[in-house]
């Protein structure tokens, strides 16, 4: 065997070894805005640097709605990513459409200190199809300076909120802001003991749902609240910061985004969402979902990323960036200084016992548009709440029967 041939064989062997060691690429589409986006990218970069089996490639694809449109187009074109960051309400729909891979066989045994119920955000009918990473509850944000100037306490009931909105309203500002999207409305409904969905079917005409919409319409009609529709929703935050409104309901994860985008020219107040004794708090947020078409290696890599993400130290850093719920109890000691530094951040933890998934029925994604149309007609156009909800329910049931 001459020297040239031996060199050729050596090159083949080295090339084969290099190929065998090349990590499995996992395209990862997500919808997270700063500062959560930077925190996610850091977790992914650290994961990639600590092992050689997988390389996760994160890509921002717009907000939840934009991301959903792009994902639908990619699925139709046959080039969907292996890994997608999906809102918890999307899980059951993805299962029904045969888009999500079951992940139980890759998970193995999990630590026993996950908070009860939080892992259910990724399960459907007893099987795991998504892995929760960023779960949150809504809170009441308020202008603490304005409430203090009127000697008002943060309202702990919806009746007290209406009274506070009245006292806060001036010629140039409203006491409260109402956003007519399905999540915001559902937060009011659930906190008042109602349900938008019952046994998998739209429940818009239920008395508590109707009463919730009547309550919001009365606030707007009385001049104590301003309504923003879906297209105007991004301006709700601007209204609050510019002191055009003094109270509003939003997920606690809005807080770091709010502070990062603009200085807040007043003391920010954060309080639990008003709730009746039978009320619940809607648990929402994002999951990692492995889509059909992903290889077994890519599915294992996605689970490995999630396990790394769920290490207590990483959860703690993630919570500090996003203000979301810590999924494991073992992360709590690492967050004590964070909560002690600003006790307002602890508000969301008090709602864990009252938390329930805000939507887990696959049909929700088909008919929530009808509900949002009804909300806008009522809150912007002054339509009768019961009649608008009845019409939305008829449309929803028509889609359901197709």
UniProtKB/TrEMBL annotation:
The keyword Transport belongs to this UniProt entry's keyword annotation: yes
InterPro entries: Bact_solute-bd_prot1, SBP
Primary localization class, coarse: other
Alphabetical keyword list: Signal, Transport
SUPFAM superfamilies attached to this UniProt entry: Periplasmic binding protein-like II
Signal peptide: 1-20
Pfam families: SBP_bac_8
Location relative to the cell: Cell envelope
Domain of life: Bacteria
Any one GO cellular component localisation term in the record: cell envelope
Similarity comment text for this entry: Belongs to the bacterial solute-binding protein 1 family.
Name of the featured protein: Extracellular solute-binding protein
Organism: Meiothermus ruber (strain ATCC 35948 / DSM 1279 / VKM B-1258 / 21)
């Amino acid at each position: 065997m001459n020297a040239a041939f031996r060199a050729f064989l050596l090159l083949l062997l080295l090339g084969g070894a290099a190929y065998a060691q090349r990590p499995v690429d996992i395209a990862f589409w997500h919808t997270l805005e700063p500062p959560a986006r930077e925190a996610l990218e850091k977790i992914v970069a650290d994961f990639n640097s600590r092992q050689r089996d997988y390389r996760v490639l994160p890509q921002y694809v717009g907000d939840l709605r934009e991301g959903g449109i792009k994902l639908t187009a990619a699925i139709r074109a046959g080039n969907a990513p292996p890994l997608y960051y999906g809102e918890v309400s999307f899980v059951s729909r993805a299962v029904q459409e045969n888009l999500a891979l079951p992940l139980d066989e890759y998970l193995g045994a999990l630590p026993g200190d996950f908070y009860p119920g939080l892992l259910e955000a990724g399960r459907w009918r007893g099987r795991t199809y998504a892995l929760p990473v960023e779960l949150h509850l809504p809170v009441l944000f308020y202008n603490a300076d304005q409430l203090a100037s009127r000697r008002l306490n943060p309202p702990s009931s919806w009746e007290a909120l209406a009274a506070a909105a009245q006292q806060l309203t001036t010629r140039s500002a409203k006491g409260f802001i109402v956003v007519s999207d399905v999540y915001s409305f559902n937060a009011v409904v659930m906190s008042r003991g109602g349900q938008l969905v019952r046994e998998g079917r739209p429940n818009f005409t239920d008395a508590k749902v109707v009463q919730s919409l009547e309550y919001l319409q009365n606030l707007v009609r009385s001049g104590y609240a301003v309504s923003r529709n879906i297209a105007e929703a991004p301006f709700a935050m601007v209204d609050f910061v510019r002191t055009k409104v003094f109270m509003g309901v939003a997920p606690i994860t809005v807080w770091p985004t709010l502070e990062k985008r603009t200085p807040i020219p007043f003391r920010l107040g954060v309080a639990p969402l008003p709730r009746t004794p039978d009320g619940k708090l809607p648990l929402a947020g994002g999951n990692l979902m492995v889509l059909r078409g992903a290889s077994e290696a890519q599915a294992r890599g996605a689970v490995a990323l999630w396990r790394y993400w769920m290490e207590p130290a990483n959860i703690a850093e993630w919570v500090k960036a996003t203000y979301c719920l810590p999924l494991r109890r073992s992360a709590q000691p690492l967050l004590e200084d964070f909560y002690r530094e600003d006790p307002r951040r602890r508000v969301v933890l008090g709602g864990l016992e009252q938390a329930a998934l805000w939507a887990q029925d696959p049909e929700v994604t088909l008919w929530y548009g009808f509900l949002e149309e009804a909300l806008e007609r009522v809150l912007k156009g002054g339509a009768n709440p019961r009649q608008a909800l009845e019409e939305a329910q008829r449309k929803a049931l028509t889609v359901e029967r197709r």
